[in-house]
Design brief:
26% strand; 474 residues; alpha+beta; disordered C terminus; 6-stranded mixed beta sheet
Length: 474
Amino acid sequence: MLTRLEVDGFKNLLDLAVELGPFTCIAGANGTGKSNVFDAIQFLSLLADRSLMEAAQEVRGTHGERHGDARDLFWNGYAPGGHRMRFAAEMIVAPEPTEDDFGRLSEPPTSSFLRYELELGYQPPAGAEKIGRLVLLHESLGYIRKGDAPARLRFPHSKPRFRDPMIRSKRYGTSFISTSLEEGDPIIRIHQDGGSRGQPRPAAASRARATVVSTVTSSDDPTILAARREMQSWRRLALEPSALRSSDQYTDPRSIGSNGLHLPGALFRIALQGPAGQQDPAQVYARVAGRLSDLSGLQVRTLDVQEDDVRELLTIRLHEIDGMVLPARSLSEGTLRFLALCVLLEDPEVRGLICMEEPENGIHPANLPAMVELVRDLAVDSDEMPGPENPFRQVLINTHSPGVVQLVDPADLLFADTSAFRSADGKITRRLRLRPLTGTWRARDSAEYVTKGDILPYLETPPGAQLTIEGSFA
């Protein structure tokens, strides 16, 4: 669970610090840079799994490209001079054994409330190189003591049912990863979970092709491995109708992809999950159908997954009250997106942070309440103990819809706009600003917040935006 994100020098994120709860909605006009927050989270997730350059090329570039120049990620990427971007992420990792890349279970992490810091620079191309590369300048993984947790976890939560079982703190002394300068060069060291036992493992940062976190693949470093698994679980959900409409082969994966692929296989697995002899697919299908029926205009009786043993295909079918059977390919885009979220809600294996851009797309305004309630229910209930019935899941959405803003709890809102910012070299630029609503938990110690009066123009329909029937035919 990502509880705090700090970014400086990444796209238009300059000196940005944002606190996150189980559910957060970022609202604002198009073009402010709301999606850049998602890009920063996605970048950190990719860096926990891939090389620096592979991660950079996979993040959405400023020109909308997927394989662009690494300079696209820096706020001053094409200007002369040095380029640096800094990140800090405070996170809660599951206080339980983690499976490493070799299928072995590690010991539980020594600490489950962690702070990860990363600084990257840019090295221009030289010689035969045609593109520059990212350079690792600093990396550290520290811990937050249990006694400091009440001040650092500011969102509403239950101490006995949420904070106490989730925050583990048995580390004293040094961090798990540290960086020091030796003869002008940054040297990164891994410190074992046992503290003073064993010698730290040093590595020159300037020659690193990947972050240290991404290289920890075994159970020998359980806390670093837990941090890596947490960052790998941060996913960006961009549901595509073509992927949602497709059937699954029997050999396909049984987890929903970021674009919605393998929805039938995921629902089939969830329906058959449970102890041997206790599986009841009909109950799972009934719960999904019941949630899907929240959409007005949809006459749902039930749904199921058809098993075609001849073609070896799995296909989702919707059974309407009048007896009509509709395969997934016949459903509207909005219905398919809503269905995918209903299936995610049933999946206890889906954990971590889910980022969704404009989940209201394709949804009729009358169905916005059902959509907002569904995405909120996807997030963990911080008043209850996380577990199979309350998966340790976090949701972050962005929107420019006044209708969504009116439906979201004010405490879950952050309002996005841009403001002037003077950089260290004296240049004036514009940066993304995220402000909470006054009186909410994020605004308690914040100098920047918005009032209901500030956002009233945003919530009102702009003059002339809605034409009358007479005007439409005039």
